[in-house]
Design goal:
Elements (H helix, E strand, L loop, with lengths): L6 E3 L11 E5 L4 H6 L10 H9 L7 H10 L2 E5 L1 E5 L9 E5 L2 H7 L5 E5 L1 H11 L2 E2 L6 E2 L7 E5 L4 E8 L4 E6 L7
Parallel strand pairs: 2-3, 2-6, 6-11
Antiparallel strand pairs: 1-4, 4-5, 7-8, 9-10, 10-11
């Protein structure tokens, strides 16, 4: 008999009324769920990259990291609300239930950029924002480009994918993942 898979739930969004950029992960890894902290795996490069960008050292406590992040106009959340997963690999995600990203954008109008941390986050963000009902409309329409736009810059060997959510005038960008390499 097959063992039933446990459903895990993500953390609430960390945003304020002043958040301008939302960093969207896929779903917390095993260590993050145990610690109840975004990017809780010490091998994940997220915090080093963010604070390098902000031009300051990485704070020594999680609460200080969050405070400085929010004070800088950055917010955190995940594309997936709940899922089953053994371990921490995004490729092991099953039964994904998406967060209502559009509802968050509707209540936090200053957010104009969503940085998706990796391809899984980007893919689920695209799904969450497509084929939804517009306010005061009876038909389902596609608010985003049919396919993400790809730009390739050989000097960085980096592919940037993006799409626009026209209803909220928000740009979604897929960045390389900060997850540790297995």
């Amino acid at each position: 008999m097959e063992k039933p898979q446990t459903m895990h739930t993500c953390f609430p969004p960390l945003v304020t009324d002043d958040t301008r950029v939302l960093v969207l992960g896929s779903f917390p890894g095993k260590q993050s769920l145990i610690k109840q902290e975004y990017y809780g795996n010490p091998r994940n490069h997220f915090w080093e990259l963010v604070f390098s960008f902000l031009g300051c050292p990485v704070p020594d406590t999680y609460q200080k990291k969050i405070t400085l992040l929010l004070d800088s106009g950055l917010g955190l959340w995940d594309a997936i609300h709940a899922c089953s997963r053994e371990g921490s690999s995004d490729s092991a995600i099953t039964n994904a239930k998406l967060n209502n990203i559009c509802a968050l954008l509707a209540t936090h109008e200053r957010i104009k950029t969503v940085l998706c941390n990796g391809s899984t986050s980007f893919r689920y963000a695209c799904q969450a924002c497509r084929h939804r009902k517009r306010k005061n409309a009876d038909v389902v329409i596609d608010d985003c480009n049919a396919l993400p736009e790809k730009q390739h810059d050989d000097s960085f060997l980096l592919t940037i994918e993006k799409f626009m959510c026209l209803e909220y005038n928000v740009t979604f960008l897929r960045l390389p993942s900060t997850s540790p390499i297995p």
